[in-house]
Amino acid sequence: MKKEKSTCKAKIAIDFQNGKELLKDLENNVTIFGSARTLEDEKYALLAQKLAYNLAKNNINVITGGGDGIMRAANKGAFEAKTAESIGLSISLPFESSTNEFTTKNIMFNYFFSRKYMLVKYSKACVVFPGGFGTLDELFEVLTLTQTGKMNGFKIYLFGTDYWKYLVKFIKKSLYKQNMIDKKDLDIFTVTDSIKTIEKEIKQLIK
Rounded to two decimals, what is the model's pTM? Predict the structure, then answer.
């Protein structure tokens, strides 16, 4: 048991140390979250690729979870721009590939919690495309960090109003209505279908 705990602690330390070494000298970073299951020719994947390409063309580095779907699309967009870093912070899972081929910098994490932390630690904003439990986990982690003042000035965009409308309704009708959150917490995130709006606001945030 002691050996297992020691091994676990060592792996955690490696996760944070390697993540810091990879990202510490990078500025102007934006994180893109989204499903690993989205096909490359689907609407949200194409839009994630376009957004990442446009951000990278403005010297903004793109960070993703390094896998397939939305992550691969975003990395591909940033990679093809050839003017910024395309970063993948991966974790080995049985149902998605380790690291897609469109990263200029990448690392493999042992644990989800250390990976989630590093995905946003050095970023100015995140764009959350449609996704499943993993994407929701990442979203609520960032919402909590922002709400509690751990990430002041951090911008959160939910892309795809039709996809997110039921979650937003739940937040407003249940969480807010039953006093689980404050009214100001509803302003932590922005729901939009406009790539141009996200680009414009992120460029203003980073300049």
Answer: 0.94
